[in-house]
Queue: 4 jobs
Job 1
Amino acid sequence: MSRTGAHRSGVFVSFEGIDGSGKSTQARALAETLRALGHDVTLTREPGGSTGAEEIRRLLVEGTPDRWSPETEILLFNAARRDHLEKTILPALEGGQIVITDRFADSTRIYQGAARASLRPLVDALHDLAIGVEPDLTFLIDMDPEQSLARGLARQSGEDRFEELGLAFQQRLRAGFLELARAEPERLHVIDGGRSQAQVSADIVAHMQTWLKARER
Ligand code: ADP
Ligand code: TYD
């Protein structure tokens, strides 16, 4: 399989965090702000973000929590991600755009790794083989799972296969994401998501602008 980490001139940004933490809301807000400032922006999401990956998304997010074995689930997320990369992310980066994705590989590391810790080596090996790309910058929206779970389940989207895993699981996810941020402080920027949308958004936009300025130097 060819490597996917070819030359790119754009900026790759991801949003991560537990379910209902405000990733979609904030990814959209950041995209709108950057567009208003004159940037060319592609806003996308996982699982999904390309025609094929959106088809795989339905297999992943609908149905009962035990629909897939953990191993099969990891393969499906990687299949979706590879298509998303090939069809959406890399073409936009090669065109010099800012790509903002609502979730990327950190979600697999944390969700599938948290479901069964012994699977983390499989997650990492598959990522290296099939994906091989990391975001330049990741916003980790951190918040209390009780608060975010109440937000998420209130949506009744029919896509609650993962959210139905419950509060204890969301707490493990939160801890896992924070550990990732401690391990990679250069890439992951932690944002306190337990505030108003406007406050969260102001922090994100400020950090993004500082980051873009530093990159120009
Ligand atoms: P995620 O993409 O992380 O699951 P969403 O952006 O979809 O989260 O937000 C989940 C729900 O919470 C939505 O109904 C959204 O309108 C609401 N929401 C998002 N951010 C905030 C916030 N800062 N305060 C209160 N509600 C919020
Ligand atoms: P998403 O639509 O982002 O859900 P939410 O808006 O509730 O945060 O993602 C759907 C579910 O898929 C979500 O519960 C997290 C899960 N997921 C994984 O388990 N592994 C992954 O690699 C990705 C991208 C998502």
Job 2
Amino acid sequence: MANVTEIFGSMVFDESAMKARLPKETFRQLQRTMKDGRSLDINIANVVANAMKDWAIEKGVTHYTHWFQPMTGNTAEKHDSFISPDVDGKVIMEFSGKELVQGEPDASSFPSGGLRATFEARGYTAWDPTSYAFIKDGVLCIPTAFCSYGGHALDKKTPLLRSMEAINRQALRILRLFGHTDVISVKTTVGPEQEYFLIDKKYYEQRKDLIYTGRTLFGAKAPRGQEMEDHYFGTIKTRVKAFMNELNEELWKVGVLAKTEHNEVAPAQHELAPIFTTTNIATDHNQLTMELMQRIAKRHGLVCLLHEKPFEGVNGSGKHNNWSITTDTGVNLLDPGDTPCENAQFLLFLCAVIKAVDEYQDMLRVSAASAGNDHRLGANEAPPAVVSMFVGSELMEILEAIEQDAPYGGKEKELMRIGVHVLPKFPKDTTDRNRTSPFAFTGNKFEFRMVGSSASISGPNIVLNTAVAEELKQFADILENAADFEAELHELIRKTIREHKRISFNGNGYDDAWIEEAERRGLLNLKTTPDALPYYVKEKNLRLFTSHKVFSEEEVRARYEIKMELYVKTLTIEARTMTDMVNKDILPAGSAYAKQLADTALAKKALDPSIDASYETELARKVSGLTRTICQRDQALREALGKAEGMEDFEESAFFFRDEVLPAMEALRSAADELETVTDAKLWPYPSYGQLLFGIL
Ligand code: ADP
Ligand code: MG
């Protein structure tokens, strides 16, 4: 193992590389640009680009790319070499400031939801200097935002940066009211815990469903699932450990703070958690992490599955988005602090989050919606589709005491006067007990647990940042005009708790009784992606995003359309893959098995008519019955698909897929899975769940 402190960030053009290679003045100006987001002067960009190029070439790099995050949810790159022809037929290696700060990839093949009219097919990418350039696979990658020439965001990064700006603006107003004149900027921080599965590559290659869709569309349950509860935190297998070691090393080289690794609940399931960092960097790093996981797994004869529900019957994978707000002076605004003043400020920020989660529960749900995640949310293994929040019983008691002006505490009960009294200490471990809450306070941050494992964390953080910015704005509007700040603050906190306590739930989120209770409270239960997505374009949400300049109305509508279409496309590919597998592999296997059984029965009878052939005969009948059912259900699925293809309207189409195509897929699967359980394993065309889940020895 290499020396970690030496390799960490060795492939990143970070502050120390900049300091070492840039003239002092250039370095200072670049720092300033990075801190307050000013645009970079072209002369400075030229110097930076040249230094970056020399640094990269020393590391064997020949190409650079603007690395961006289109609305596909993946990352995109187009490599250009540094070469430039020289007078004598030779080449020199060049990289200009213009090439560093702006690129012009052909944008016409990326989803745009109609934003990028064909006459402006070109989009442009612009360097996000707050996220360092890095070397991946011998290519210098420059993290960029991606926009159309009309200025519309075509990616997941531009609105994220805008949402960070929105919360920065409003949080600073609040901090000024508490007398923090020293704070220059406020940023949100994120530490995303990433779950994934590892399976043997040789089995993966034999499954069209995994190859085309990332999940198994068929597969009878293995005799053993996760019931022994022995995988979570269990000993890590040698092959998996070798993968993790290489992954850590590669992540460290590109500056990702990979910290914790362990086995998860389901067999073959694992998790990686990084140390948190600024939200836009955490988002870049999570994209890199997912990419490297998939690439490095292959080197170990493994395949990394990031799908939310690769296997039926065992837990799926999510991503826990740990989120907080921090000042440039190093203060975590969701940390209760020790003094009455810190406590008061903490309670105000806490209230902003409570109000935001209540008022924008629909948008949080939208931000976690995808065809893959629909299999997980509400399946008693992940949070329900209902958004609620857990603040811990100690903190809840305090909030209730404040709301009711009731005495709080042990022997010497006292009224909690905000700004006067000190909050009692609540130990961190007791704040983190509830693992079933979709949105849990864990001592000094919130953990949003609905996000799917394959999703970019950009969407959820755009919603969180913007919704909390809106609440902080409302608070600042009131408090800036208060005659008596402390009295107004106290009243504001009380009022917020009173009006939004319905969102708080400290019980078991997996319990069905909670879903009924949530409905009584008027909380939304948006079970599927088509249920959730239309909330994107509700008046109040359009107002939220446009008023904070995070999205224009066209941008929201475009994203809504893209997400609905993505749902339809995902299910279309799944349905087509199923019918392909059924017709080419599963039905022929069933038929061959029926023949084998019939041949055996006939052979037995030919040998001696008194021999019992009832096993073969009965089974041949059963297998034939199942193949007929499968054939009929496949026909039904194909008819549904045919109808769907004729639909022009994306909303109608999404609902049709949910109501007609998906149930047809499920019906087809159940018959095929039953056939698998009775068919000779030698004839079954695919590796079994047992091999997939327990195949890494
Ligand atoms: P666990 O959730 O397993 O108890 P931790 O609470 O230590 O573990 O951290 C979980 C994740 O939360 C880690 O990725 C960590 O970096 C992240 N985290 C910790 N503090 C913050 C913060 N202030 N802002 C954002 N993420 C944070
Ligand atoms: Mg956690």
Job 3
Amino acid sequence: MMQMDWAKGLLRPDVEVRESVKTLGQLSGIFANTKALREMDPTTVVYRVQAWCPIPEGTEGGLFWGTTVVEPGLVDSEYFMTHGHFHLKRDRTEYYGTIEGEGALVLMDETRATWMEPMAAGTVHFIRPRVAHRVANIGKSPLRFVACWPSDAGHDYESIRTYGFGARLLNVRGSAMLVKSDA
Ligand code: S6P
Ligand code: ZN
């Protein structure tokens, strides 16, 4: 059994919980404006992840549970966001559920068609097979969400590092807009 603090959107820290922190320095390749990024503190935290993986990674038929907190912020006009990934087993799906904050779930299929679903307290999102997913914080406070995914899904970060998403979520005159990427 695990304890979840639903108000904070966090699992109770425990030996069973894997925790990771992603900083601007670690995410340098994913933001468009590398010059603006270089002028920012590379130790700035962009998001934190907890994962409860009660069975070995790769086990067929199991499920993992995790929390993510994305901080508010911008690199030039691009919102702070998660790295984003396809699942290594492309047909594996996932649920995201928003605890609090204001965000956008950016989704991309294998033809690079990219779209978004708004995230706010209470929204539940089903991520379909063969769809890459990334979350941007478009608000002024931390964006907190939970995730549930198959234990044999795996993560393909490489495709995103190399090709990115088909569009970027930018702050255009104060509003969040999905703008097609050149890459
Ligand atoms: C795992 C699930 C989430 C993400 C987390 C960080 O399948 O989608 O727990 O790992 O939101 O995003 P990323 O793209 O860095 O894994
Ligand atoms: Zn995933």
Job 4
Amino acid sequence: MNFSIFSLEGKTAIVTGANTGLGQGMCVALARAGADIVGVGRSDMSETEALVRTEGAEFLPVKADLLTLEPIENILDEAGKRFRKADILVNNAGIIRREDAENYSISDWDDVMNTNLRTLFFLSQSFAKRLIDSKRGGKIINIASMLSYQGGIRVPAYTASKSAVMGVTKSMANEWAKYGINVNAIAPGYMVTNNTAKLRSDPARYAEILGRIPAGRWGEPSDMGGAAVFLASAASDYIHGFTLAVDGGWLSR
Ligand code: NAP
């Protein structure tokens, strides 16, 4: 079998939240498939840079606080200056704030919605505009969640944002498929990253969640790699608006 359909040779991928966790896992996988990486984030990305370079790919770090829309054009300009073009955008950066729904603050609501949804949409919009203007196709991969499907506990803004990510993925896909832009999402299950540190530190919740995962283990950042490469590559050219769960079977339970 010829696996070149999954090759990302000659492609450039922008990955937000590249310094750690799932973003780092996806940077490494995309680099291994041949893509150069533009890592976007507010923290030091040297660990990811070293991992990507070990795969033989280039890495450009772009500092940006994605709480606001202000850095968007600079991210795309920097990617264009260094690599001439960007082909793939992975909207991975996201935050979670936990509080009982009756006490949930407006500032937590706004921070979560702005980071997880508002920036994701407007970065995608600017990325797509550049592709459309230059008559090139491309790939957008949004990171959704199990809480795109379920309600969750003590995370109302996160659930609202991730449910909307799944919806807006379909909405963008419907409008941009005709330009050769694929917009899809990945819904990770319960993964070992900073995002779930609090959950994992509660032994009862940890065991409860583990007991419900058919695969019998929490996910690791490397588990995201296959789905990310698939949705970034020509292998998924006729797939639009779909959210692919990488969840050890959680949703099938
Ligand atoms: P993580 O380790 O907390 O990573 C989140 C990433 O987003 C970090 O790189 C973080 O940067 C970045 N980020 C957050 N706010 C930012 C901002 N204002 N500006 C720039 N970067 C910002 O958790 P993760 O699990 O890898 O999360 C990655 C994505 O997967 C998120 O969208 C999350 O919601 C989603 N997800 C995770 C799970 C899970 O089980 N872990 C499940 C479903 C979905 P800093 O390190 O600087 O904070």
